[in-house]
Design brief:
Layout lengths: L1 E2 L13 H17 L4 H12 L5 H17 L2 E8 L4 E7 L13 H15 L5 E7 L3 E8 L2 H9 L9 H12 L43 E7 L9 H10 L3 E7 L5 E2 L5 E2 L5 H11 L3 E4 L2 H14 L2 E7 L1 H23 L4
Parallel strand pairs: 3-4, 3-6, 6-7, 7-10
Antiparallel strand pairs: 1-2, 2-11, 4-5, 8-9
Helix pairs in contact: 3-10, 4-5, 4-9, 6-7, 7-8
């Protein structure tokens, strides 16, 4: 926890003085009562020994403590419901996904894991699908319709090449259509049915005011790749654009880190570029996961889908403390009136 206005904490030494003042007032009142009849003295003494006499002042003291803390504007990292409303799932559909080191193949394992993710992600969060190989395309725009998403996953087609950076840029273009993000080989202006949009209708790119990585709370990207970039925009360049917009990227590296062979016996280079993928996650405030088996991949996606319901965020607690202090003050006054017929 830290305080936005720590200078306000200088008022805290006043708190120990309040009980001292309370005890002094009680003693003074007791001495004043000695001037009256013995019956009045006994009655006042009985009231003074009763625990209810001290509860309202104690509640009022706690209310003052809460207000003093609230004045310093404390900020703590607390777990709250997820604020994001959109998830873009970017999946590698390059030919290397035919490799069988992940049973039955990387491609089929990725499809099944994506459906597991759809099952676990909170129902109020829209999910969109982006596929990439030599170029990137929108397979399904963000929607709450899980059946349409599952059908789009079943319809993935493999292609040649791996343009990881283009996939990230296409996701950003979907999230920020007014930023004029463009890159060669990216399927901009295509809806899931492939209808082209007017290029001239796209606004020209403008300057972007960078924000803290991971601070954009309306969307996130989950990127799955089984290899390294072979064409298109540099991966880290695209990740930098995501970072300056505050978009988190959760990266899943699929398969074994080494050379492999397709079922047809054709040698292809499918070594995971883990350093780059880890850096993408680090730059954007996300996380990297390696999935070497179908079971691990399903576990990663299940974990990602479930964790999106709650997220630890830095949250200012001044409002909560003020509200609690107000309730304590009302309770103190109400109990005093109920028990003693006055606010004492």
């Amino acid at each position: 926890m830290f305080f936005l206005w720590p200078e306000s904490l200088w008022l805290m030494p006043v708190l120990p003085l309040l009980p001292v003042a309370y005890l002094w007032l009680l003693r003074r009142r007791h001495l004043a009562a000695l001037r009256y009849s013995s019956l009045r003295i006994a009655r006042e003494a009985a009231h003074g020994r009763h625990w209810r006499r001290h509860l309202p002042p104690a509640l009022l003291w706690l209310a003052c403590a809460g207000l003093l803390l609230a004045a310093a504007r404390p900020v703590a990292r607390v777990t709250l419901p997820w604020a994001r409303s959109t998830i873009l799932l970017a999946m590698d559909v390059s030919l290397s996904m035919r490799v069988t080191d992940v049973h039955p193949t990387r491609f089929e394992a990725a499809q099944e894991a994506a459906k597991v993710f759809l099952h676990n992600v909170p129902g109020g969060i829209e999910v969109g699908l982006v596929t990439f190989a030599g170029s990137a395309h929108v397979a399904q725009r963000a929607t709450l319709d899980r059946a349409s998403l599952a059908a789009a996953i079943d319809g993935f087609q493999m292609q040649m090449g791996t343009a990881v950076g283009d996939a990230i840029l296409l996701c950003l273009a979907e999230l920020f259509p007014d930023h004029g993000i463009e890159a060669g080989g990216v399927g901009f202006g295509r809806n899931p049915q492939g209808r082209s949009l007017d290029e001239s209708a796209r606004p020209p790119p403008g300057p972007v005011q960078p924000v803290a990585p991971g601070s954009y709370t309306s969307a996130a990207i989950i990127l799955l790749s089984d290899g390294r970039r072979t064409m298109g925009v540099e991966t880290l360049e695209a990740a930098g654009m995501a970072a300056e917009r505050g978009v988190r990227i959760y990266v899943v590296g699929l398969g074994t880190a080494g050379d492999a062979t397709t079922p047809e016996g054709l040698p292809i280079y499918v070594q995971l570029d883990e350093p780059t993928l880890r850096e993408v996650a680090r730059m954007t405030g996300g996380a990297y996961y390696h999935a070497g088996t179908a079971e691990t991949l399903r576990g990663v996606y299940e974990n990602l889908g479930s964790r999106l319901e709650l997220q630890a965020r830095e949250t200012e607690l001044a409002g909560l403390l003020s509200f609690a202090s107000a309730l304590l003050a009302l309770a103190a006054g109400g109990l005093s009136v109920l028990w003693f017929g006055r606010i004492a």
